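Continuing the batch. This is chain 6 of the set; chains 1 through 5 are on the previous pages. Same settings as before, nothing changed between runs. Recording input and output for traceability.
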Amino acid sequence: MFNVMDSYDASSGKTLGSPEMKRVVVEYSEVFRYTLPIGLLPERSIDHEIKTDPEAEIPNRRLFKSSLDKLRATREYTAENLPAGRIRLCKSPY
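Output for chain 6:
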């Protein structure tokens, strides 16, 4: 998945990136958003959940290692999008 906002400059009308990306953005320009929506999607009538064993021991370790650059980028993304309502805190007990 690519973010169309990273590949299109609305002020100049130019696309950035690979030729294939340019072709797709230009061809389907009427369906791409150039600004992010505010907040989360509306609530649905069905709420999916993953059932877990209540007696299972919770693992106390990182899921995967991250480089310092990726960790920094993740923190910046979270700091920007959490107050804007585009993401929310996880309610998982894990």
